[in-house]
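ENTRY TYPE: paired fold submission
RECORD: A
CONTENT: sequence, then structure tokens
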Amino acid sequence: MRGLLQRVSSASVVIEGKEYAAIEQGLVILLGIKEGDDKKAADYLADKIVNLRIFEDNNGKVNLSAMDVGADLLVISQFTLYADCRKGRRPSFIKAAKPGISEPLYNYVVEKLKESGLRLTTGKFGADMLVKISNNGPVTIMLDSEEKR
């Protein structure tokens, strides 16, 4: 399971020309799920997301977590995080889990993140979305549950 975290000053999701979700200071989490991922991978990723120290303290040091600053969270499903571009010119998404597997795990991660008490909103699973991101820093970090193993 992969989570691409972007620290943002604001972000929103537009679906069919209408704003669907929006956050202020916080994290946009682009979440990719691959075949073989499970709740253990989801637990690891959710814990890492809310506790990773990627926000600045009063001294300008990157020393605070989403929990410390009361960050907003916006979670977006993103199967393209498992694109394999090694052959040819068209990415293969064969490693990405099918919706029947990935949607329940996506929802599980969302529920685990909600347990943090942080304000959380999501995109719409499987929808064609326009994601507007004001990346702050810029800070963009890739988390992968495989790193724990």
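RECORD: B
CONTENT: sequence, then structure tokens
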Amino acid sequence: MASNLPPKFASSAYRPPAPNSRGTSPSGDGMPHAGGLGSVSLGEIERQTRLDRNKRAQKRYARYIRRVGIVLACLAVLVGAGVALYFSPAFTIEEVSVQGADHLTSQDMAALTAIEPGATLLNVDTGAIEQSVLRDAWVEQVQVHRSFPSTLLIEVTERTIAAVVEVPTDNAKEMQNWAIASDGMWLMAIPAQDSELGQALNPQIYADAESVLTITNVPYGLVPEIGTFCTDENVNNALRIIEGLSPAFAAEVKTVSATDAASTLLVLNNGVEIAFGEADHIEEKEQICQKIMEDNEGKVAYINVRVVERPTWRAV
């Protein structure tokens, strides 16, 4: 009668005999057992793996060395070509173009730049040229550019004359006109235009000097020096007043008396004298003067706005 129970296994199951250390059958016949792994040891596998890894590393290093060699060779060629070009006459400076120098002559710029004959755009020291040009009091800013193949471009921003200061000479018997910039830089002593020195100057200097106001009555002892900033408070006070006035009103000022900062006196082209005083409340003082002159057109001879809260005026 057939049984519906699952088959049972004997408690001592069959185990096939294990091969000996040589992979042969336990019978000792020396023949490999069916399904054996062969005779390669684990140590041999590891050694072969290390050899393969070293070979790959050597190949990578060889490729790296070749690439480095190629790069170095290219760099050597470029450096050699650059050195040869640097010392070659290629790009020799044939023209120096100066822009913005309205008060400096071409002779002045040639002396300031001091470009040696045969200099090229590659070996010229533009920084040294800029520093040299900046030594001149007229020059506020300068930039030097290379314009290939043969032009050196110098862009100059000049100071402008804000006023002409009448400075007493050593003997206090004569006056020497000095041009001064709005930032207080002494630009130069202005000689007579018909003198030998005056003939050598740029005519623009005299044109500008005639168009600006004159600072007069400067105390004795003021010693201007080209390229230095004015340290006299009376003159600096006058400059601050001029700088703070509106362009239209400043154009009407003919002279500024700078004997003392507190008593600074403006004289207009129409003859009206304005006791302006120190350079404070400049805009408000100007408006008061304008109002007085508008309300009393042709009748005003003198205005005092030194104390802005208490302005006074006197008729002709």
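NOTES ON RECORD B: The first strand starts at residue 95 and ends at 99. The CA atoms of residues 168 and 221 lie 8 Å apart.
STATUS: closed
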